[in-house]
Amino acid sequence: MQCPKCDGEMIVKNYGRKISVNRCSDCMGLFAMPEVLLEMKQEWMSEVLDSGDPKVGRKLDEIEDISCPGCGAQMDKVSDEKQSHIWYERCPDCSGIYFDAGEFTDWKYDTLLDRIRDLIRGRRDA
Ligand SMILES: [Zn+2]
Ligand SMILES: [Zn+2]
User: How far is the CA of 82 from the centre of ligand 2 (A)?
Assistant: First the structure.
């Protein structure tokens, strides 16, 4: 599998029993199915898979109009519902998702922080 952003080679990386993602050996971008990403989001320390440099990821985030590394369809650039600063690519055909380096970690942890903020706010209101 070839990386749609930098043409590096994407290699399968496994984490635990259920998680299997494709990671670019050059830019460290990640490609996986949404259910795998959700699983990864809940998994302790799963961000070790997102080992790329966020600076490289931000630069590559500017690249648009990429083809899905899984099936070749044109991918859509979408922003996360809850964290609108995070933009990732989603395949309309196979629903695979591509995260630039650092984006997964951002996605995983901002949400946790949001939950903590919600808890604090909830307590104050009570
Ligand atoms: Zn790459
Ligand atoms: Zn696809």
Answer: 23
Q: 90 in a domain, yes or no?
A: yes
Average pLDDT over residues 84-104: 94
Report if residue 95 sits inside a domain: yes
Query: How many domains does the chain fold into?
Result: 1
- Across the range 28-57, mean pLDDT stands at 94
| Token code pair at residue 72 | 């070749």
Note the ligand closest to the C-alpha atom of 59. 1
pLDDT of residue 126: 47
90 is written with which tokens?
């989603």
List residues, by chain if needed, whose CB lies under 5 Å from ion ligand 1.
3, 5-6, 8, 24, 26-27, 29
In this structure, is residue 37 part of a structural domain? yes
Would you say 39 and 83 are in contact if contact means Cβ atoms under 8 Å apart?
A: no
Ligand nearest to the backbone CA of 23: 1
Range of the domain at 31: 10-125
